[in-house]
What we know:
The complex is a heterodimer of chains A (262) and B (72).
Chain A: H1 3-47, H2 52-58, H3 71-101, H4 110-132, H5 146-178, H6 180-201, H7 213-261
Helix pairs in contact in A: 1-3, 1-7, 3-4, 4-5, 4-7, 5-6
Chain B: H1 2-5, H2 20-42, H3 55-59, H4 61-66
Amino acid sequence: MTARAFLVRGLLAGLLAGFATFFVAHQVGEPHVETAIALEEAGSSDHTHAADADESSTGHTHAEDGTVVSRFDQRTWGLLTGSVAIGVALGGIVALVAAGVAGRIRSLSLRQSTAVVATIGFVAVALVPFLKYPATPPAVGNADTIGARTGEYFGFLLVSVVAAVLATALAVRLVRQVGAYAGVVIGIATYLVVMVVAGQVFPTVNEIGDFPADVLWYFRRASIITLATMWGVLGVLLVGFLGRLADQETATARRRELAASL
Amino acid sequence: MSQTAAAPVTGATAPTPIPLRELAPWAIFFGLLGLLVIFFVSADQGAISIPSGTAIHEWVHDGRHLLGYPCH
Lengths: 262, 72
């Protein structure tokens, strides 16, 4: 097996995951984005007309100033672009990580080690950052704090990924010394302790104001469903594609052995 | 007896690891490329703008919100 074989399958799995993510986000998430934008526009009409200059200087745009992209384009082609780009990029990265750990996690088969990578990836890259800094709909979030919030989000994401990699390496090492049960439990517990502490240390963001709680919950539920679709489809397809590859490699090796023995 | 039972050929055994020397250039180049793509979709023209303007931000706006990235 070569790096190329992994990468090609990862890019394909990521492309298909991107399309699935677009479909789910469009069907499940967009109604709540539309509700939030309607609320935002209803709210902004009260007080921002008096402060037009102020509004344009914040760079907070919804097809009203700056570059105009229609709502139709944002929720169809724009959403598709974002979903597919993220899907292909994640697919490539996850496949290369799977290539790196193949045959290096004890006696796990290629299917098993790839499933471990995809599962840890979902938890460390999507789920845990979401629990600390959940997605916010349009109309929530102060444009003046976008710099700080971006830094905090990606900082927390980086801590989560590094902690997951180190905890996994620790678990693989411990499994050899103290057995699979204790090794895996200690590895997972280490990651959880690090992330709970990091979650306490990183600043809290609360810019929700009087945004309706039901719309916020529907939007966030749709967002985590979207993220789960991305990682779920990517993981399932990559395990399937790489599993077939492993089967072919095994069959070829057996035929060679048989031919050599004749 | 054992030969007939072993008929299904599967990749259930641990694969041979790919040497890290062989994997490294692929991982570095495509890892950086992937991170760059994720940057443009997730964060560009929010906190940092390359290029300036709002076209990329507006185009991927809904994906940025629904995929959980800080948007505005």
